[in-house]
Amino acid sequence: MIDADRLSSRIAELGRIGALPGGGCKRLALTPEDAEGRALVTGWFRELGLEIATDVIGNTWAIRPGKRDLPPVVMGSHIDTVATGGLYDGTLGVLAGLEVIESALEAGIETDHPLCVVFFTNEEGARFAPDMMGSGVAQGALDLEQMLASPGIDGTTVGEALDGIGARGPAPAGALKPAAYLELHIEQGPVLETEALQIGVVTGVQGISWTEFTVSGRSAHAGTTPMPLRHDAGHVAAGIAMEARAIARDFGPPQVATVGRLSLSPDLVNVVPESATFTVDLRHSDEDRLQQAEARLFAFAEEAARAEGCTVTRRSLARFEPVVFDAGRRGAGRAGR
């Protein structure tokens, strides 16, 4: 049995780093708060005598050797957060993995496979795009050099931020090949609570499409420019945001759409916006449906801009296809094996 009190205590201690006045915490990737969190968790790894390795993208692995020369069974997640993060997102997966290893050590349990716990870099994507960066590089799905050059919301690149907090390690990315990977994670939604369920088994991963739109129009005086003569970038942006919502409504579950970031220029009460930059996050568990949602949104954006005498450009911030988990493994999970 694990020590639930010890696990809860560690979650609370890590949650005090970057704590917000109204609850929750803010530890954006590769910030001083993230560095402090990394130091705390790595210290717990050292206390157990685990073998620690940090790779070139900052992923940190802690290994308890097994009885045989076999690939490790890996548990973990991330410890970076969004700007208004909770105590459990990511943290639970890392510290629960640590608790499993510590409990096994205390009980004298030896395993054939090594046991490993990992925390990945920039999984949230709140400071640097794309999200799931550290794990993506480790699995070869994302190019290391491109990710190191990725600029953050403050203009700092991932590589600069890694060096700034001393988080860039010597180990090559992807050198560790897991035999299996297990992640305990919060739902991040209301379904389990609504259905009065304690736990769910994940059957797949949503496809993700993050797009940044920039609408260019013409600034004008808000009081003296007639409506038909405006080239209002803000109006176009609002229309695209409403269309994203309509797509989610028309497609139905599990399609979702979110406009998470929006900025207007010159951002004045009495001036028609000359430009608008904003993001749209589309997600669906079916790749064909996700592509259909993208096509509809992109076509609408072009037409909305043209109708207002504006132009629109877009760039992809992240694009991941859906993943359906192996049915055999899910069946074993249902059977309790």
UniProtKB/TrEMBL annotation:
A GO term, aspect molecular function: hydrolase activity, acting on carbon-nitrogen (but not peptide) bonds, in linear amidines
PANTHER family: ALLANTOATE AMIDOHYDROLASE, ALLANTOATE DEIMINASE-RELATED
Organism this protein belongs to: Salipiger mucosus DSM 16094
One Pfam assignment: M20_dimer
Domain of life: Bacteria
Protein name: Beta-ureidopropionase
Keyword field: Hydrolase
Listed InterPro entries: Amidase_Cbmase (IPR010158), Bact_exopeptidase_dim_dom (IPR036264), Peptidase_M20 (IPR002933), Peptidase_M20_dimer (IPR011650)
Residues covered by the Peptidase M20 dimerisation domain: 204-306
Family label: Belongs to the peptidase M20 family.
UniProt key word Hydrolase: yes
Main EC class the enzyme belongs to: hydrolase
E.C. no: 3.5.1.6
